[in-house]
User: What shape does this take?
Amino acid sequence: MLPNGSKGGLALRTEHPNTAEQAAEVLAAADSEGLSVRPRGAGTKLGWGGPGPEAAIELTTAGLTRIVEHNAPDLTAVVEAGVPLADAQSAFRRGGLMVALDPPLGRDEAATVGGVVATGDSGPLRHRYGAPRDLLLGMTVALADGTVAHAGGKVIKNVAGYDLTKLLAGSFGTLGLVVRVALRLHPLSAKRVTASGSSADPVALQRSCYALAHAPLELESLDISWEAGTGQVLARCTGAAPQPRAEQATRLMQEAGLRSEIVEDDEQLWSRQRERQRSENGTVVRVSGRASEVARVIETASSLGGSVVGRAAMGLLWVALPPADPAVTVATIEQLRRELHPLPCVILDAPREAREGVDVWGKVEPGAAALMRRVKERFDPRGILNPGLFVDGI
Amino acid sequence: MHRLVEQLTRICGADGTIVTRHARDTYGSDGLLQYHVTPGVVVLPDTAEQVRAVVGACHQAGVPWVARGSGTGLSGGAVPVEDGVLIGLNRMRRVLQVDLDNERVVVEPGVTNVDVSAAVAPTHVYPPDPSSQIVCSIGGNVAENSGGAHCFKYGFTTNYVTGLEVVLPDGEVVTLGGAELDRPGYDLVGAFVGSEGTLGIATKITLRVIPKPEDHRTLVAYFDDTTEAGQTVSDIVAASIVPGAIEMMDQLTIQAAEAATHAGYPLDVGAALIVELDGPVAECDARFDEVVDICQRNGATGIRVAADERERELIWKTRKAAFGAMGRISPNYYVQDGVIPRTRLPDVLGRISDLAREHGLKVANVFHAGDGNLHPLVCYDGRAPGEAETAERLAGLILQACVDAGGSLTGEHGIGLDKREHMNKMFSEADLDAFQRLRCAFDPQGLANPGKVMPTPRLCGEVPGPYRQHPLEAAGVAERF
Assistant: This one.
């Protein structure tokens, strides 16, 4: 079996543009020749999306690695798409700041800003700060016909023009190559402490998450996890005086029936949460649920031999299924979808053989799908960008 | 048009269809009174189905339409099209669902901003709070991606809309997003919010709400000039403090607003800075003294701390009255909405002051200081020959100064009619072309709020791809870039 992420073939050629204009030239040439193009960052999420045909050209952002601006006092930065997110964070940290994105960074922590934006991936900081879409102030994009366009700006408040940054975020490279983004930054908290609670009862876990989400604690993250018959709730408090809130959080956990404690040195807890959103040989399904469905998702995943990690208050859960024969994996995914219907279940990591056996995106409402197709046709009329990779065969 | 009016009357009833000239006239302007166009007919649908039928009828007849909420917009975004249909959504004001377990509320577009928070009170709140929140509608907020005083910490409308039911310009109804996050597909909710009524009409809106902050501490500090006040804002942000709101007023604004509210602001100070911390009690406690310190270090001549809710409201009342109070010092004013990187505040204010002097007009300044969103109020007398034109010219130069400083034409009011001619200051033809692709995907016929946002009328090719001349272009009616 091929490891996750393999397309099982090679692109005809690879292009490494150093500027937006060079990227646009590659695209324009491919467009006129009708050659398909696969945009690529560090390649940590190459296996995501539908298993479309192998592209003729791989267009990488490896030559787009400049941090163009870091305006710490203005809480903004402009970075090129190929900058590893970890490198951007190191630069921001020197100014006491962060971009509030902490998705799993993949092998060698190589995930790039562009790749995270293109896939809309997020981690525990989602609870407080939102997804890439919420943190993008502006964008430069190279379109299929060779147009280089900008949208948004680089100030933290701006409503001039259409918000193409949100359209491109999470579009999996099917509308254009994201070349450069302007980001909103946030202050790094001086102090952090996590309240941790555990229970083997999914309903008690959900109940505690309710209480924590609705208390005015201003949690930075509120996560849940479930593995091998037991679960955990993690509530991270940050700011100038996080300790009293962490204590309040442990009390709320206890009232919900959890055993709870305060963890001062909590970095490992959270990196583990992030890592569990990925799987090297197994399958990961992202469930778009609701806070009120957390227990049900856990029970369903558990009955299928899966584990769960995710954002409790948002109902956004990553279900990991163990490595199995592709036919078994496909059957398990289908059962998960049936039991969680109508919650959207998107397959992220999965062996190629399994991805070929299911629609990784699941069904999209027909009217919305038709509109998405019209958007695709306007931005990439010849369909050269990542053909077949996105929803509804886009 | 006559047949369309008959059809619209069948859809919306006689009491929901306005045909008489004087009644149509009242819908001729939005909050920006400089523009007035009488629509051909006004309809006031009561249900999503009526909206669908109205838009469908317009589509069939090829007649353009403009959707309108409460008409408080400040960019002319809801100004009607002559001989077009004006669709007023104020009758659709039902709160359809309140689901506090999942922190969601589903509303119709005519529900006012403040009524969303009322629907989830007392435990929760809907954070975006434009100054017009008592009357402005959520549908309008979605169209404009409205902000408010609290968006530096809490974000904008777009960060709170998770799902939309939209009537597209061809009369089709689509559901975009939902209560859940990260649904598969393009983020068309994100593309729709802030599209200024040019992509369709939202008939059902799903919003995220948050737990009400536990506590808030409010102060107003007075300074000799706006530079000191601006430095204070930067020092607060540099200390990793994220206030719920930081608002600044200059002397002219204070004088006008104080005359209206008698809140006790001194009239001889150069700037007033309202700082409000909100959040957990322990956090407010830990940081409030620091804020006071920072104000003092920057030369605050006085600091007034709100002792109770009544005093807090008084402090805020003055800020929220700022626009309306301008009538006391000037017969007319022209409000702008530029944004700059906050650290450029002293230079840009200096530039605005120079420009005002050169043009012989007064400019009062109110800012959402945390996020660098300026509201320069250009004061003029519309009865004095040429003064309105001078004011408009001055406002344009102020916008240029904002863009030159690395900022934006608009932070929350939108482009609308008012700023469309300035779009070229910020965006290239290639950028505008990319915008147009999105617009054409939603509205290939160009019937939804035509003439707004884009600097010149643009058409959609019949099929995407190679350039083809549109019949209207050939006739010289419109041009394409």
In short: Chain B has a mean pLDDT of 94.
